[in-house]
Design brief:
Oligomer: single chain
Structural class: mainly alpha
Strand content: under 5%
Order of helices and strands: HHH
Number of helices: 3
CATH class: Mainly Alpha
Radius of gyration: 14 Å
Distance between the termini: 17 Å
Number of strands: 0
Length: 64
């Protein structure tokens, strides 16, 4: 894990950032359900998927 964080720091940072954003928007949705907050959770979840895919592509390219 430490090696991955060093070698793929931008990708791991993007994953952490997107997960943190998703957690925050999910908490906001929990405390204040609304269409806007549902949209924010959906958007943030899409960003998590994208960041994980980018990490997978980067590691596949590097590690085969």
């Amino acid at each position: 894990v430490t090696e991955a964080k060093g070698e793929f720091s931008s990708e791991t940072h993007a994953i952490k950032s997107s997960v943190d954003s998703l957690a925050a928007s999910a908490q906001k949705l929990k405390s204040s359900p609304s269409a806007g907050n549902i949209a924010a959770v959906t958007s943030d979840a899409t960003k998590v998927v994208g960041s994980v895919k980018a990490f997978a592509l980067a590691t596949t390219a590097k590690c085969g």
